[in-house]
Amino acid sequence: PSGNPVDFEHLARYTLGEPELEREVLGLFCSQSVLLLDQLRAAKSDEDWKQAAHSLKGSARAIGAWRMAQAAEQAEALQGDGLSELRSARVDEVEASLREAEAYIATVLESR
Known about the structure:
5 helices, mainly alpha
């Protein structure tokens, strides 16, 4: 995997290198990830938590945001409603990796 927050070579396999499709997929990723992060933060049950973390992991993997995928995978593994302190730290990690990916996406798209 690329050392960058988003692996554009990985993404190109799914978008066939089409710039407009790439922009659309990345835009969907950014908007959906923010909503999913809110769901993760608001999760009241293990099931809600796991569902939001799993969706974040899948979205990140789809575009090659490997650090975010790893942070979401670690969040997904947490179980037990009493783990609020650990969950808070995981949300912070997912959010930081999402913000890093968003900034990188914006920079790359501006240069194209």
